[in-house]
Amino acid sequence: MKSKIGRSLWIGSLICLLPIAFGLICYNKLPDSMVIHLDYRGKPNGNAPKEFIIFVFPILMMLLNIIINISVAKAAVKGNAAKPLIGIGKWIVPIATVMIQPLIILRSINSQSPVNLIISIMVGLIFILSGNYFPKNRVNPIVGMKFPWLFNDEEGWRKTHKLSSYLWIIAGFILMIAPFIEIPFIIIFIVLISLIGVIPIVYSLCFYIRRKSNHINNSESSLK
Fold first, then answer.
1. Does the pLDDT of residue 219 top 70, yes or no?
2. Cβ(143)–Cβ(137) below 8 Å
3. pLDDT tens readout for residues 147-156
4. Hey, which residues does 46 pair with through a beta bridge?
5. Domain extent at residue 48
């Protein structure tokens, strides 16, 4: 198990650094300041030096990959988290790095590159894949909807993840079609946050409170 974890960690970290080579190849074609963020209309609203994009960004992503791999490895050892979700956790950062950094570079060379579209589709697919495996995810403190009141409530955890599965898949499809529809970003953002965060929290908390209330009532009845 440790050798597999170590192998994926090293391979993933090396993949995170691969875009540096692409950046060096394109170095002379790049402006000194590069666009790193676009608003929902695809207009630039954030810049950074090209050295940051080429060198610092991949290194930061490599460090993030190490942190995430160590975290999901703990869940893998305990054997509770769904294996596909662990796999997504291990490889999400390397895959994102080899896509995002080249896209930023290509956007700087050709301003018509569909960066927003590609990133939205990529993130949407990750949401759909993650949501698909949520029902198989057992209680653990690393992967999934990690609400404290669910750690000792297996039924609540299962029901919350079943609901979240549908919500994350819906959110994924919304992300994939968002670049094609004329809806203000703030509305899309509120809908997504509600789907992946607010609704699962409210649902799981209501379920927990109802279960606790029923337990108290049953205890009082047994004492009478």
1. no
2. yes
3. 999 988 999 9
4. 37
5. 1-104
